[in-house]
Amino acid sequence: MNTTEQKAVLTIAMMAAFADGENSEVERTALRGMAESFGPDARISLWDIYQDVVDRRRPLGDVTAQLVAPEARAMAYDLAAGVCEADGTVNEKERAFLDSLRGALNLGAAASPPPAAAAPAAGPDAVPPLLEPVDTGAIDKMVINYSILNGALELLPHGLATMAIVPLQMRMVYRIGKRYGYTLDRGHVRDFLATAGVGLASQAVESVARGVLGGLAGSLLGGLGRAVVGAGASGAFGFAGTYAIGQLANRYYAGGRKMEAAVLRDTYARLLTEGRGLFSQHAGAVQARASTLNPTDVINLVRNPP
Questions:
Q1: How far apart are the first and last CA of the chain?
Q2: Which of 77, 176, 177, 205 would bridge with 182, disulfide CB 3.0–4.6 Å?
Q3: CA–CA separation, 154 vs 157, rounded Å?
Q4: Residues 18 and 54 sit within 8 Å (Cβ to Cβ)
Q5: In angstroms, what is the C-alpha Rg of the chain?
Q6: Residues ≥6 apart with Cβ < 8 Å to 63
C-alpha cells in the first residue's frame, strides 16, 4: 500500500477505536502496533489522524474511497474489527460502526453461521452426499503445513507479513469445510471462528504487535509490550493459533456443524494449548520456511492464498 492507503487504513482503525465514544489503553496499543507495522518510512502521524477523527474532519465514505484494491478494503475492515475486539467485547455502538464500515467498503452483508444444534438446511449451505470418505490424514497434513507457513510469516522482519496469516487461516477453514461438502464464504468463516472465540481480526492486530513492538515501542508500552515481543519471537503464536483453528474446523465440519458455542470455545482453548506443545517438533521447519519467503511472496499469499 502507498502512504495514502496506509493513512486511510489507520484512520479507519482510529475511527473504530472511538466508535463507542471511548478509547481504551488496549485499543491504543493496537493502533500503535498498526502504525509501527508500516515501517519507519511511512511518514504517518497518529496525532494528525487522531485530530482528524476527533474533530470529525473526514467522513467515513471519503476515507474508504481511498482504498481501491479488494485486499486493502478487507484489511481495513479486519483491522477496524480487531481494534473493536481488542478489549474483549464488541458493544452495540462498535457493531453499528462495523456494519457501516462493511457497507462503505462494499464488502457485503455479514454472514451468520447456522444454529449450532440445527441440521443443515436445504440450499447453498446444504451438505451434498459424500461420494467417498474424507481423508482425515490429508487434513491433518494440510493443517500442519499452514501452521508452519504462518509460524514462518511471524518470523519475517517486515511487520505486514503477519497480515497474511489471517487470510491463510480463513482459506484453510474454507478448504476443510469443502472437504466435508460445505460451500463457505468469507463471512461464514469469520462468524464461525468468532463464535468459537478465536477473534481473527484481533488476532491479526496481536500478531502485528508481536512482530513490531520492540526497542523504543516496547519500552514505551512497558511490560505488555515486552511480553508481546517475547511471545512472538519464535513463530509459536502463528503456528499454534493456526493449528488450533484447523483442528477445530476439522471437528466442527466432520460433526455436521452441530457443536454448541460453549463447546467450540472450550475445544479451541484446548487445541491452542496442544498446538503450543507441538511447536517444538516443527520449529526447525518454521525457521526453514521463513528463510525462503520474501516480501513479494507475502503479497502473493494475501492476494491468492493457497
A1: 22
A2: 177
A3: 8
A4: yes
A5: 19
A6: 8, 11, 12, 15
Tell me the fold of 3-104: TerB-like (1.10.3680)
The CA distance from 67 to 73, in Å, is 6
Q: How many residues does the chain have?
A: 306
159 within 8 A of 39, measured Cβ to Cβ: yes
CA distance 205 to 199: 10
Tens place of pLDDT per residue across the chain (306 aa): 677 888 888 888 888 888 877 665 555 655 665 555 555 445 667 678 878 887 788 899 999 999 988 878 887 887 787 677 655 567 888 889 989 999 999 886 554 444 433 333 333 444 444 546 789 999 999 999 999 998 998 887 655 556 677 778 888 998 999 899 888 776 778 777 777 777 554 455 444 444 433 332 333 333 333 333 333 447 888 899 999 999 999 999 998 888 888 888 899 989 999 999 999 999 999 999 988 887 667 766 766 667
Quick one: which of 127, 154, 147, 250 has its CA closest to 196?
250
Q: How far out from the chain centre does Cα 219 lie?
A: 26
Q: How far apart are CA 80 and CA 10, in angstroms?
A: 9
* Whole-number Å distance between alpha carbons of 37 and 217: 11
- d(Cα 12, Cα 210) in Å, to the nearest integer? 21
Rounded distance between C-alpha atoms, residue 116 and residue 264, angstroms: 10
For 196-222, give the DSSP string. Answer: TT--HHHHHHHHHHHHH--HHHHHHHT
Distance CA 208, CA 293 (A): 17
Domain ranges of the chain: 3-104, 136-303
- Predicted pLDDT of residue 228: 34
Cell of 136: 482425515
Cell numbers placing 54: 476527533
pLDDT at 121: 36
CA dihedral 199, 107, 252, 114 (to 10 degrees): 110
